Amino acid sequence: MKHYFSYILAAVLCAALLPACNESEIEYNKAEVPLELTLSTDAAVLDIHAPAKEAIAFTWTAGTNGGTNSAIDYFLQIDEQGNNFDGGKLIEIGRRVYEYKYTHSQLNDLVLGDFGVPKGEAINLEARVIAMVSSEQASDQTSATMPFTVTSYVPPVTNTLFIIGSATPGGWSLNAATPMNTITNEVGGFRATVDLGAGELKFVVSKADFWPAFVKDGSAAEDKLIYYQDEPASELDIKFAITEAGRYRITANIVDLTINFEKLVIVGPTYAHWYFVGDLTGWGFEEMRQDPFNPFIFRYGAVLNGSSDRDFKFGTGTSWSVPFMHPTAADAPISSTAASVYAGDPDYKWKLTPAENNKAYKIELDVTEGSESMTMTEYTPLTTIYVIGGASPIGWGLGNRANAQMTQGADAYTYTWTGNLTVGTDNEIKFKCSDDGDWDNDASHPWYMAPEDGTPVVPNTDMELTLGTRGAGDRKWKVQEAGTYTIVIDQLKETVRFNKP
Questions:
Q1: Which residues are within 8 A (CB) of 138 and not within 5 positions of it... i.e. 6 or more apart?
Q2: Which terminus of the chain is more exposed, N or C, with fewer CB under 10 A?
Q3: DSSP state of 234
Q4: Whole-prediction pTM value?
Q5: Residues 202, 216 contacting (CB under 8 angstroms)
Q6: Tens digit of pLDDT for each residue in 173-207?
């Protein structure tokens, strides 16, 4: 640092030899006032909950240019007490500036980063100001040294948090862990609205590993968090128990170690209809489908054709004055999930690039207040689909599934089958989507099912088609009338149609 300051000093002195050709080189005569530094406090105790609040201010008098009309450059030096400014921090202030401030977070970063103070501990520092006159005819000045102490805080251990456990939609899979959203203007605050089943959960800081993590503090009378960098003894790895299934708003603060589970009464979204709109629709409004299991989820699937950048957003109606769901920045990529709902400006939109055009996509819109998001994924259709059930010609015999296989229709996403469906003691039907004899219902053995078990088949009508893993239970349609049917499945639109002459 000593050599660095000498370099600056030499550069400024060289500049002083040049003619003063503009206003910035001129500093009109100063009175013979000593250069004095003043601190707003000599003991800054930093507060993690006030990161943007002023922690300390350094102010100084102008000093003197010795009547030369020459500009004065100011430098603020901060170093550990007793180090004689042989290191530390050198801040080039500039000209005609007589104050420098640190917020709580800035000063904490300084003492932890530049001075290596252990988190949460104090350090004794000192500061001085140097005034360098851009003229050889006037002397530079150095203020008296001013001592002060700074007590640091322990910053949050993470800026990401995920919910994992048997009570969550993703179970104990790290890849499927539920992300929480940071709370604006609350250091260490996270919140998520999530559907939970009976089970247990804890909080991990990333999807890479189960530790570090926050679990339940068993020594506290009420629900509290406790942090473990590494896996603790099994008796300390206490999960939070969810005894009643439902939708919950979970609010956590990893600084205060507080946690709150609020069970919500699901009424429905503020806006019952959502529309996809943009270049891809000619700025026409295309209605999205409301998820049959979660009224706050809306879905849309289509092949999005184009040859240039394509903008889009989502409307709550078919007029331009209604609230829209926007990304949180202009020209957001389709991988950006963050979203907010409002009317008016800024009119941010997502952007589909030329390379991303001419592909099939599925969009999932979560309109849960406070947790709004847009998830857009390229879609690859299932290619092996069988008509299975008591109403099917092959019944429940998976060994004969080839005799009830659907064939590709007008495009890669449409599959059809024509045959006789019966009505008897068992008139149920669903669709197996893997070429095996396995009855499992998972990502490797998918099924298309009804939105709820016992859904009656309504001929010649588009009906809801859902992946078996999306809802609960074994959900089958019931055929009400025997006869010849042509079944048409549209995997992009997620519909099934039982056409009957």
A1: 64, 65, 66, 67, 68, 70
A2: C
A3: G
A4: 0.50
A5: yes
A6: 898 889 998 887 889 999 998 888 888 999 999 99
